[in-house]
Design goal:
The protein has 9 helices and 3 strands. With about 210 residues, it is mostly helical. The chain has a domain of about 150 residues. A 3-stranded mixed beta sheet has the order 1-3-2, sandwiched between helices. The longest helix is centred in the middle third of the chain and has 38 residues. The chain starts with 6 loop residues before the first helix and ends with a helix. The model has no long low-confidence stretch (mean pLDDT about 85).
């Protein structure tokens, strides 16, 4: 039964089937919010377990400031290969922290660069048309929130289609889908087994915006 302590690391293996079932059978809004909450809970559980394993595994190091009770044989017996597991857990925590910092930094850098480019061609409203022949459109959160459309996209759409694209991107902004996706990506940095939830959540957010 001692291996039950590793359960929080095994449960995220269900992320792929759970994500698929959610986006197929639930309303897109419900599925997106549910998957975000699930990603946060599972990431927190595995992170807390890594921290506890690290504490137990290093409790016998001389001059450790932790309470002596953490080094009791009964506590260490609950963690298989306590010292190896402890140091491995601390290493995994460090890797997860660096991955979260890297993801957050890249996200912020991309937003700043996109906002700088969009602000130069903003039409005075909430739409910015970039002079790019490639067709694309995306929602850019911030103050003010903007819908960015390329010239290539604008020229290949009818007025009705263009209005639909703007409505879709504004729905992303209204639903704060960017924040939900960022939370899911950070959760996947904490536990890579949660990566399937990111794809399912992104699909759910697109369907939510369509609705």
């Amino acid at each position: 039964m001692e291996y039950v302590v590793f359960l929080p690391f095994v449960v995220p293996l269900t992320a792929l089937p759970v994500g698929g079932l959610a986006v197929r059978h639930l309303h897109p809004r419900t599925a997106t919010l549910l998957l975000t909450a699930l990603a946060v809970v599972l990431a927190l559980c595995s992170t807390v377990c890594l921290g506890l394993f690290g504490v137990v595994g290093t409790a016998r190091i001389p001059h450790n400031p932790l309470p002596d009770t953490w080094a009791d044989p009964e506590v260490r017996a609950a963690v298989p290969w306590d010292e190896v597991t402890g140091f491995a857990s601390l290493a995994a925590l460090l890797v997860a922290l660096l991955a979260c910092v890297r993801t957050g930094t890249r996200h912020r850098t991309a937003r700043v660069a996109a906002r700088r480019a969009a602000s130069a061609v903003r039409d005075g409203g909430d739409v910015a048309v970039l002079p790019d022949p490639s067709p694309y459109a995306y929602a850019l959160p911030g103050r003010p929130a903007l819908v960015v459309v390329s010239r290539g996209m604008r020229e290949c759409l009818t007025e009705r289609e263009y209005a639909a694209v703007l409505a879709h991107e504004r729905a992303h902004l209204a639903g704060r889908h960017h924040g939900l996706l960022l939370v899911a990506r950070l959760a996947a940095c904490a536990n890579p087994l949660l990566r399937p939830l990111v794809g399912a959540l992104a699909y759910g957010a697109e369907r939510w915006a369509d609705e």
